[in-house]
Fold this protein.
Amino acid sequence: MAYLIFSLSLMLIYIGLAQMLHVQFGLLGIPNFGVVGFWGLGMYAVGVMQVQLGMSFVDAMGLTVVLLVIASYFLGRLILRLERQAILCATIAFSAIIALLAVTEKWMTMGVVGLGTIRHPFRVLGLEEILFFLFLLALIVVMQILILKLHKSRLGRLMVATRDNEELAASLGKDTFQVKIVAFTLTATIMGVLGGLSAPLNQFLTPNMIVPSITFAVWISLVLGGKEHALGAMLGVFVTFGLFDILIETYAPVSPEFAVVVPNMKLFFYGALLVGVLVFRPTGILDRKIKPEDISAALSRGMSTGLAGAGRGMQSFAKVADEKLINRKKEDDQ
Amino acid sequence: MKLHMRDLTKAYHEHPVLNVAEATLGMHGLEGLIGPNGAGKSTLMGLLTRRIAATTGTVELEDGDARHPLNPIRSHQVANLGLVKTNQRIQGFESLTIRDNLRLAATAHANETYRGVLDQNQTNDAIEAEIDDYLSQFTFADPDGFAKSGGEKKLLDILRCLIFKPRMLLMDEPTAGLPDDVTAKVMDMVRAKVKSGEMTVVIVEHDLELIWNYCAYVHFLSEGEILFHGTPDDVKNNRVVAEKYMGV
């Protein structure tokens, strides 16, 4: 049970990271390949302040937010005027620097020896983990609601316009650089906050946690789910981390002789799924033309089919979504 | 609104493409800017809207009694002073519908805030009425969908600029890619807006008939310099223009 709560909490962290990447890349076109850098910076900052300086979790998090705002604002100022390829390289470099500093600055991070123990913020005996999970859940739900609202707002429309053609948007009086830097600072800071929240989850921090595979996992989830769709991040993490890491790896009844190959099979399926989606649905499972209303309509239709439950629901969802998409395509073609 | 240029030059890798000692655009309402290919017309347009940085010289926007130097400011600030340009090459926001394109242009940047995210409000009645008005005058295959053909995209580019309500509009080859009847409709609308004093307009165009028909004053640009300016009749009868451009 504790393990399930830990896994689900971690999944929520991934959803949050993918949501922020959706705003950065899906809406604004900023290819941030340094997700793990912001996450790692937040995680280590909270860890160092708690363990080395003896600060409370709330104080450490507050100071970490200040640090993250400064770091992401200055990084943004440096790179957001550049070409997309340059932003990609610069953000990878940023995450590499953070990973390296975690190893080398031993006086602060304890280096490869590791830093611990980070205490849970909710000190209710026996309920720490579940309370923390519920807190994360609330945070992710709030962020999801805000993203859905952002999609329907003037600012969201401007973000999409900036992604499509920044120069044209500027020629219509839009301060596109300001839009990008404010959104980047905000979302990168939240990535760091999610890192800070991962610190008590992991309890013991080592530099080998800050690996590029976290960045890639978040990217794969977002691309799979639908990078331009408000719900793409969430769905993407469900079908990758949720399906493979939690459901199959932990709960599928696999005989011991095959258990060894499961982690490798997981990577294989990740890859196969990604290739399949990119071939048949290049914009991700949730194309941007599928509206969230369509999804809720499809889901409620799915629910009402009753006994068949989840299976039928998914089918009808896929069908309705596809119909909508085909109809829209037909309308577009006309 | 008027645009004053002084000692304006642009060179790429020390190779000069534009050299305007002194000129003023926008004194006569609807003006034309003509010249052979490679004369520097589009470069001049880019310099005036700060899309391209000048090598030397100054550009000033005169608005009533105020004079705004454009050199120190960025392209979105130029637009917010009221100076906007339509594009020669097709430009657009592919993910936005025709209506959203127009809503984006009609919405003041000051209203595109984080606070507004909570309201989920993308438009208002005044903007919708204006959009309906434009879409009733210009036909798109799917007015509630996306702009499809090159012509529709070009038209949308011009409508985006018009709904922005500029005080001065630069039009870079508006007829390229537009059907003749649409061009005439656009130009009639532009002329009406100039007459009512809403804006001044400068048109860069190769279609000389259009220039003679609509423009009150014409500037002739060749090899990076403004060689002649005057009324359409003066320009038509000018020997330099005839030699360098009309191939007589």
